[in-house]
Each structure stands twice: as C-alpha cells, then as structure tokens.
Fold this sequence. Notes:
5 helices; 26% helix; Rossmann fold
Amino acid sequence: xxxxxxxxxxxxxxxxxxxxxxxxxxxxxxxxxxxxxxxxxxxxxxxxxxxxxxxxxxxxxxxxxxxxxxxxxxxxxxxxxxxxxxxxxxxxxxxxxxxxxxxxxxxxxxxxxxxxxxxxxxxxxxxxxxxxxxxxxxxxxxxxxxxxxxxxxxxxxxxxxxxxxxxxxxxxxx
Length: 174
C-alpha cells in the first residue's frame, strides 16, 4: 500500500513561481488515498476527548464529516460569510492579500463543549486561528486541530501554539 504522501500531487510554480502547490484533489480522487487520509487523521486524534467536530468549507467538510460519522459525533459547519441561513456569529481575519470572514450558526456550539477542528491544510495559520476564536466566542473549548497537510515553512503552527495541532503530512517548505 502506498504512503499517504504518495497520493498528494505536487505542482511546481503554482499559483506563482517558486510555490510548490500540494494538491489535495489527487488524494480525494483516489478511493485508497481518501480512505487512508481519513483513517490517518482519525488515528492522530484517537486519544482526544471531544464532543463536536467542526470544519471549514469546503475541504474541512470533506475530511471532518467522515471522522464525525465514524466516531458518532455531530459535525458543525464553518462557512464563508452569507452562506448560513440562521443567526450566525462571525469573525473577520487577515489573509495574505486582504481579509475574509467566516461564520457559524449561533446555536452550533454549546458552552463547555469540547471541539475538534478538522481541515485539509494549515499554512500561515490565519484561518485556523480565526476558527478557534469563533468556536471560543460561543463558549466552546478547542481541544485540538487535525489537518491532512502542514506547510511548516509558513509557520502556521506558531499562530496556534497554545493548541494541539496534529498533521498527517508535514512539508518543510512553503
């Protein structure tokens, strides 16, 4: 059986020269790769005690939902602004070029619930940091973050250094 890293396609010089783009679609398009990715991420958090799994659109949905399903936990959506139909809480955060806003339903996390955040990637850590703040604004406690890939060279881990971060694959570069 192939290693998880072997399912990730690397595209040089995308979206600009000098960037090594790690393409998650090549993992998703292979049944064995997808199965291995979910299993590996789930194994990384096997020792964590949590009540709820949360993940951002869209790839956090893809990896978080099967983990929630396998562990019989609810899954909470974190979406871009304007995509959720009920009352929301939101947070605006900095991107490399501009800002973004993410939201959750106001009733999606109950005070005191222990939350695992699942995503495909951590790079600079801005989105992950914003998700943590959003969960905490509802009274939730983030007990861990698990990602498929970590781009360690971009130092996203530094932004969430007070939180547990598990990565199935760590790339040293950008």
